[in-house]
Amino acid sequence: MTIINHPPFGKFEHPTLTANGEVRAKVPLRRLETVWINTGTLCNITCDNCYIQSGPHNDRLVHLTRAEVRTFLEQAAECGTQEIGLTGGEPFMNPECLGMIEDALEAGFRVLVLTNAMRPMQRFGAALTALNRRYPGRLTLRVSLDHYQAEEHERFRGQRTWQPALDGLIWLVREGFTVAVAARMVWGLSESVMRICFRELFAIHDIAIDAQDPAQLVLFPEMTNDREVPEITEKCWDLLGKSPDSVMCASSRMVVKRKGAQYPVVVACTLIPYDPAFELGDSLATASQPVALKHHHCTNFCVLGGACCNPHGSKTP
Length: 317
Ligand code: SF4
Ligand code: SF4
Hints:
single chain, 317 residues, alpha/beta, TIM Barrel, eight-stranded mixed beta sheet, two-stranded antiparallel sheet, globular, binds iron/sulfur cluster
């Protein structure tokens, strides 16, 4: 006997229907512009606000190997992908991170690395500089500074995290890297105030980043699950005046390797790495189906939060 799962459901339970029985919104893959590589969830610090709960002991997503990443680079090339993003954890905790960057640059991709710019990145200093010189303008490092003041940054990231991150950022700028900064909108300040204050910070330290440019200073809405959020239905796009193309899963996917798994898998986006409902198979070719918005992050962060995740990723590592 077939048992049909029918309303009432809880919120975010059913793959295609919402709790009140409407058709859940789906996002078709428009074009695979960016492939994210989650190099592993280990990180050198533990931030209170880390959406992926990274830290020195979290290896739920294990380190991908350079050889594993090469396979996905080949698939990405076949899909016409232009950009490879490296995220974590802290990508430079993965000993093969530099090799992955090199392979991606060599294959002709633009590469974006999300880093906290602290010790794990700094120990690759000379080799990273050499790579950047070999592929001028193809590599961008996006550094997370949660706030323009040390005290607030360290409130989430822990003591003695500000100066090493700032030093890393300054070093990158002086070495001629293309650099962006990611910060968070969690202080009740308006976007314009955040941008003005960051502009002052950049001016003080001679950091050539245009704080008015949303691609150079990326401001993310807070990823909190504290409040009740509605589910997104097919009708919401018109009601909100928003296109499914504007969210990250319309143009990107992420490769992860779960602890104990034999192979990496592809998930819908960088924001939901652990939920099996967002797993889309073991190759980019199998991962092109539409994504049902069945998670509170979809509502909170992408559709109502106003985060334009693409092309610059979504995480402040
Ligand atoms: S969190 Fe955003 S990018 Fe991820 S599946 Fe939901 S809508 Fe798509
Ligand atoms: S937010 Fe970034 S730096 Fe902080 S724990 Fe997470 S991955 Fe590490």
